[in-house]
Amino acid sequence: MNHNTPLSPRPPHPLSDGTHRVLTHAQLRARGVPAAQAGEQCRPGGPWQQLLPGVVLLHPGPPTSEERLHAVLLYAARERTAGVPAQPGADEPSASPSGEAMITGLAALALHGFSSAPALPSLDVFDVLVPRLRRLRSAGCARVVRAAALPVPEQVAGVPVAPVPRALADAVAGLQDAGTVRRLLTEAVRGGHCDPAAVVRELTGAKLLNRPHVVDAVDSLLAEGRALAESRLYRLVREHGLPEPCWNVDLRLPGGPRLGVVDAYWPEQAVALELDTRAPRPGRRPEDDAVWSEYARRREHLERLGVTVVRIAPRRLRDAREQAAAVVRTALMAAADRDPAAYVVVLPR
Q1: pLDDT tens track for 267-291
Q2: Which residues contact 55 (CB under 8 A, 6 or more apart)?
Q3: What is d(CA 11, CA 17) in angstroms, rounded to the nearest whole number?
Q4: What contacts 112, CB < 8 A, 6 or more positions away?
Q5: How far is it, in rounded angstroms, from Cα 198 to Cα 162?
Q6: What are the residue boundaries of the structural domains of the chain, listed by start?
Q7: Nearest to 37 by CA among 13, 59, 6, 14
Q8: When comparing pLDDT for 222 and 164, which is higher?
Q9: Across the strands, what pairs with 145?
Q10: Left (φ > 0), alpha (ψ -120 to 50) or beta: where does 140 sit?
Q11: Is-contact 117 184, C-beta < 8 A?
């Protein structure tokens, strides 16, 4: 029997569109194929095969990567897909309704275009992210990853995919090779996929920063992100006609204490600029709270001395350069309306 031949006299939809030939048992029943008949077709040597529990591949040969991805999503959402057509389209819902399942981990990174991630055909399993309370087990080429709160998926080639920071954390959780982890994290930043802070937040949430090889990779990631942000800041100043500042300097009171390091400082206007990568974040580790308190104290001291502190996130330098330039220009122009700032010593680093 040809595997493209409909098994019911008047099926409501064709069984296969020639591209995605993957259906759940519920979808087959909606097309007039009872479970017993589907099971018969999936016997060894038959025209179909059961790719995952409750998910059938409508041809006997090896599945393509696209078919395996589709099967994994159908498996993760199979109890909700009764009567759902196999192929998403203008009037057909996707295999993962309500965003309750999405591809994550290395497969997601491959879909996002990471050259340092293995190609999809070389992956034996695809990670699928589902809500923590879902009663679903890993099986076959589907490896279940759970989350208390799912991120908003991104559509890549019609497939719901976890955002890069979440996909990275799920991939790193299963990797032991330091070089691979470092290459993935570096490409995330160098390739413009996301900011280092977003990656660190996900790695922190996944409790992965207690692994030495991950910590080392994060150090490289932060250095990479900082160098990229500094380069964008230099271009911002020059391309938007801002006055040239003193770059990367240490501020001190004359004969007094150190006030801290800033990425750029305009002495005439008493405006200091900090990239968000320089400031510590509270709560990542027990000692971080003390570091954060000291940082906040120094910043407040600068402001009491009349120094305006502008803080800019690297993402704004990448995605909203006009806004970032306007923020700096406004701070410089407002200097004329402020009381003169205290004199501070500017030292190169």
Answers
A1: 999 999 998 765 445 445 555 566 6
A2: 22, 23, 24, 25, 71, 74, 75, 78
A3: 14
A4: 156, 161, 164, 167, 193
A5: 13
A6: 99-227, 240-348
A7: 6
A8: 164
A9: 129
A10: left
A11: yes
Q: What is the pLDDT of residue 30?
A: 85
Q: What does residue 246 show for φ and ψ, rounded to 5 degrees? A: -85, 125
Give the Cα separation of 195 and 188 in Å (integer).
Answer: 8
Question: CB count, 10 Å around CB of 336?
Answer: 7
Under DSSP, is residue 159 helix (H, G, I), strand (E, B) or coil?
A: strand
CA-based nearest residue to 273, from 241, 229, 239: 229
Tokens of 269: 């206007």
Phi then psi dihedrals of residue 150, to 5 deg? -85, 140
Antiparallel, parallel or unpaired: β 102-104 and 308-312: unpaired
**Secondary structure (H, E, C), 224-267:** HHHHHHHHHHHHHHHHCCCCCCEEEEEEECCCCCEEEEEEEEEC
Q: What is the chain's mean pLDDT, rounded?
A: 82
Query: How many other β-carbons are positioned within 10 Å of the β-carbon of residue 151?
Result: 16
Phi, psi of 113 (to 5 degrees): 95, 20
Which tokens hold the place of 125?
């399993």
Cα separation, 101 vs 114, whole angstroms: 21
Chain Cα centroid distance, residue 98: 19
In the numeric block, which tokens belong to residue 209?
Answer: 């920063």
Tokens of 122: 């070389």
Contact 309, 279 (CB under 8 A): no
Q: Which of 187-191, 224-228, 239-243, 334-338 has the highest mean pLDDT?
A: 239-243
By CB neighbour count within 10 A (0-12 exposed, 13-18 middle, 19+ buried), where does 244 fall? exposed
Please state, in angstroms and rounded to a whole number, the distance separating the CA atoms of residues 144 and 136: 7
